Amino acid sequence: MDVTALFKIQYGLFVIGVEQEGRLNACVVNTVAQATAEPPQLTLTMQKRNFTTELARKKGSVAISVLGEKTPIELIERLGTQSGRDTDKMEDVPCTRDAAGNPLLVGNGVVAHYSAEITSELDLGSHYLFVLKPTALEKLDGTPTTYSGYRARKSTGGKQWVCTICHYVYDGATPFEELPDNWVCPVCGEPKSAFVLE
Ligand code: FE
Q: Which tens digit of pLDDT belongs to each residue from 28-79?
């Protein structure tokens, strides 16, 4: 069994926000997915040892900010790598609150806001899988990032390779430098040399 075959699954990137007793907490996940359309239901998988997971189970609801191609790398790192047990990582992060009081990120390239109730959970060992019923959905401007696009952007110091002809932003899993010489812009067909880092 080749587990690297699983690397071919594409993911988005999301901030999960929970308010508990006046305190705001958040973490970054790549595990939000739409499960059904009628009625809309989502799934969310979270690590058991994560502090935000503990708070979400107590609260019974979460706020989800969908991150975009323009979301700053530093913000993702800050919310993703520190534990809210020890630090107030939401300090200075611009937020609004949903009807349940849970924090949604404002600005910072966020492309959608979801508020949801946790309707059931499944114990997966290291993680819980939550089924979510949305209570509010708001679409904002911008293109959502993929997890691989974020990793590629991280490897270029937060900059992105942009086509100077059609403004397509490279979002692939392979670092731009490692693409073959005959690679062309998937939108306008220009060669690699038409791309600039900006
Ligand atoms: Fe192009």
A: 999 999 999 999 999 999 999 999 999 999 999 999 999 999 999 989 988 8
Residue type, 45: T
Task: Work out the mean pLDDT of the chain and round it to a whole number.
Answer: 92
Q: How far is ligand 1, taken at its centre, from the CA of residue 151, in Å?
A: 21
Rounded CA separation 182/16 (Å): 40
Are residues 66 and 21 in contact, defined by beta-carbon separation less than 8 angstroms?
no
Question: d(Cα 134, Cα 64) in Å, to the nearest integer?
Answer: 10
Q: How confident is the model at residue 132 (pLDDT cuts 50, 70, 90)?
A: very high
Separation CA 86–CA 24 (nearest Å): 13
Span from the CA of 7 to the centroid of ligand 1 (angstroms): 26
Q: CB under 8 Å to 94, separation ≥6 — which residues?
A: 105, 106, 107, 108
What pTM was computed for the model? 0.83
Tell me the pairing of strands 195-197 and 112-123. Answer: unpaired
